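Morning F.,

Quick status update on the modeling queue. The single chain you submitted on Monday has been processed. Sequence for confirmation:
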Amino acid sequence: MQFDARAINWLGLVRLLTQYVAPGLVAVVLLGELLRAVLFGGAPTSATMAYDYVLVVLFTVLTVAMIGICGWTSFLWDIDRLFFKLESRIDAEFGEVETPDPEQQSDGSLLGRVRAMFNNALHDVRSKSIALIEQAYWDDINAGGVLAFPQPDIAAAVEQIDTSRRDLLTPLTGLVAGAIPLGSLPASIVSRLIFRYVAPQVKVRLYRRLVVRFLSQLAALFTLTALCFFISILAWSRVDGAIFAGASGTTGNVLMYQLDLMLRGAFFDIMEHTKSSITPLAINQSSTAFVFYTLVFRMFVAIYIFSSFFKVARFVFRHWKALLSTSLR
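Structure tokens below.
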């Protein structure tokens, strides 16, 4: 039977791995470490050595897989493309604002009533209007959970924005009808006039939602990857005590070594140049496999930090006028 990789539901597999398998294994191992300290007091036995070998293989593979998933998720998050479509959809609503009949405009009765009502009642419903419109647009973008953890489907979100035909101002129309005495005026006209006024604030809130969703998903994946890496190097230090020099590979020392490695990845050569370190452990350069394994994690940290920073910075740079004008209101 020929294996067909396209027949596998990769998204479902990734979600199973990141939502259940990896967190479950990490929780079980951390609980096991507590029981190990109580039952064996840290003394190695044949059972614990076999257990450590299993942890080395399992969590090394899991760490590499999580690094790949984290990188792929960062690549998929095209915030600019998604918001360009969303912004176009919001701006298109302006062209759908219903205008009063010319004969009614001539004496100014309807237009004057709308303006007076709009100015007097806007401050009472403004915050609720922004929240309702923001939630309506967000629910429309994320229909079916296409932006759910761990991997977003930006193409599906863009397609949803392009093809959606439902009126996203319906919640606002209901609010206006209940909060403002309209008389004979349609609530839809007033709701669209309010939408025209609060649209910049809605856009900025959606900016923030997208950025927060992007950063929270990557942060969750990064944290899970770091925990898998910690378990793998802790078990590795127990299997092969020669991978570290300078001090014993206790749990605390291994944790400090990982933090030191992450700082070196985040700050590149600054710590190397200043000869700074927060750990008593030093890596044994003769342990080639371990050297390259830790190098992969250090490069992952560097790429994660700078790719996240530059993606968000580029997004803010392209929309700084809207962000600034709204923050000054």
